[in-house]
Amino acid sequence: MDSTVGCGPADPGSIPGVSTNLGDKMKIKLIKNIAKEQQENQVFIRNGITFKKHPNKEDCWIYHGRMPISSCWIYFYYGSIQIENVIVGNPTERNHGFGKLMISDIRQAFPYQKIWVDTWNCTRPFWEKMVQCGYVDEIANDYSWPCINTTCITCHENRNVPRRRVFQ
Fold it and tell me: Which of 28-42, 61-75, 153-167 shows the highest mean pLDDT?
């Protein structure tokens, strides 16, 4: 007497009416996900400094070399580099030289390119110091530019509204 274990044949192709290509859609989806991940994870290394391609912005590269403390974005413009979105995340770690180290890393990666920034009123002293140190070549805007942080007293000292929003 023969006994069979299970509910049927192990090969789904041997069951009439069942496609043997059950995994094709999954394979296509997996290939698309891998291609997307490779595109998002594009990196380049310059003089030992690693930059990761921004997933949504063209010609934008993110420097995470000083994470979790600080990071920034760089854009390439006709032989020059603009630094943007400079962040020292924790307010207690500001004014300790972390931003300066990060900007010096950018200069080390691009020693011969012109590096420039646009700056808000509240960050201008930092960028003037970076120009003096030789890490940045130019502050492009020579006019007053208040920041978006409405609680910033440096940029919004004459605010008439009595209560300020908290900005993180």
Answer: 61-75
